[in-house]
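Feature request, filed as a ticket because there's no other form

It would be nice if the structure record came with a short human-readable summary line next to the tokens. Right now we just get the raw output. Example of a typical job, pasted below so the devs can see what we mean:
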Amino acid sequence: MKYSLIGICTCLSVMTGFAQSENGIGVYRPKIAEFSSETLMDYGTSSTSSEYGNASNEIERDRLYKAKLGIPLLIREDRMFGLQLKYYQQRFVLDLEEHPTDYDFYLHLNSTKYTSAGIRWLYKQNLKNGSEIKIAAGAEIKSDVWVWNKNSSKYFISAFQTWQKSSTTEIGCGLMVGQNLGVTNVYPIFIYQHDFRNKWTIDLMLPKYAAMRYRINPSNYIIAKAQLSGWRYNLTNALEGNQGDLTLRKADVQFSLSWEREIHDWLWFGADIGYNKNVSYYLAKPGGRGRDALIHINPRDAMYTKVSIFMVPPRKFFQ
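Raw output as currently delivered:
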């Protein structure tokens, strides 16, 4: 039963954090629930459009609140099944006192809450050759209003297989297929994890992230990480003369250094600081990509901070 509980917690963490090894001293336990606040520091932004004109402004606050909760439903020696609930809310506050504007996009950005909420199903199966199959599928709404349609919804399924090559090394590969606000995404997943010197861990899930984790002691970890970050939201009636649904899409690369500290066995605190570099940011018609953008947005790079409280399985399950 102990290993089953460890397994389901690892399964529930697959799509949200590190899928950690279950072996070794001072094991890094997977996150099964997390509540966090992420902030991009004050930064300038400009917008260009042949149809709607050009404008610029200052983003005083770009903050994203996240809540994730994993729930086990089936626990067996050779298989586990569970679900995860998620709710994200993002708000932008512009400096309209210093930079007054009548630009429709900025006015909508400043006055609207953007929500991403959904459910994910997670399944893990042990195979006779010692490898594991992990499958995740989910559905989400990503919009400024609670309306479920093709332009505001996301569906995905991913499957990958991992092999424990030794007591310190795990490798894996798989595929993710999704429909995100009318756009189809397909990409491979490559996994590599290696522990060495009982202190350091290399953790890769490409193309999503690459991380190096250092264990100070069983209650403190330092993590250096580079990751792809971003979002899509459905915007409703955001531009005068273009009523209806539009897609706001942003893609960044984040470089961060984080500290995770145990508060009490299963309850931990995390603090991150880093640098956020924008790769792509635009507003387009549903299904449109960057080349089809109605408005191109050009934010400056910004500092990034995050604070979080998260829960992990009690240490006794790993002893």
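Something like this underneath would help us a lot:
Helices lie at 2-12, 104-111.
The chain has two helices and 16 strands.
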